[in-house]
Amino acid sequence: MKAVGIIGCGELGRQILAQLGAVHPPGKVFRFDDPRSAKGEPDAFPFEAYLEPRFADADFYVGLGYRHLPLRAEIIRALLAAGRRVPALVHPSCHVAPSARIGAGSLVYPLCNLDHQVELEAGVMLNNSVVISHDSKIGAAACLSPGVVVAGYVTIGTAAFLGAGTLVADHRRVGARAIAGIGTVITQDVPDDASVVGNPQRLLDRPLSLG
Q1: From CA 61, how far away is CA 38, in angstroms rounded?
Q2: Mean pLDDT calculated for residue range 65-78
């Protein structure tokens, strides 16, 4: 059994370990976080220690979620640049078309459906029952909440966040770091860094809070 490094020991990190335990039980587990967060955990190390050579043989999973998407993308880039292994974690209940491509460090929760020629870049997070239709591309470290449905030929930008139940019409682009509130229906392109809500979508004059 391989050693595993979990970067971020909060709720997402615990979910990753639970899924690994059910699918690919790890051997030794190294936890990287703020020492206060990892207090009392076995094999806990400061957050910035994950690139130290002594951990080079571990498989790394990034447990930073929707509040830290740009940092998630940055850490996965650093791990890959250092030659570390950053496997994707895909629940066995998912449907993944043979032509779909799943990037390093992506997390795909139960009952997701990835259609023909779908591409997930590094570090994408798809929560429960997300549907990505044919020829769509999801940018690095984007986070799609439970029940999101993406139609065909859609592009989702880096570190974008789509709230639960968001629907994206075909041939639309959702920009980098954009935020869509719960149940948003996206029928027009969303600019980078924009926040949208409603059906149909309306553009907000200030960012939605993910806190």
Answers
A1: 16
A2: 95
Residue 203 β-bridge partners: 196
Give the separation between CA 104 and CA 204, rounded to whole angstroms: 33
| Average pLDDT of span 193-199 | 97
pLDDT above 90 for 34 = no
What is the DSSP secondary structure assignment for residue 138, as one 8-state letter? Answer: E
CA distance 82 to 8: 19
CB 176 within 8 A of CB 156: no
d(CA 99, CA 132): 13
Contacts 24+ apart (CB under 8 A), 158-161: 158/73, 158/121, 159/69, 159/70, 159/72, 159/73, 160/69, 161/66, 161/69, 161/210
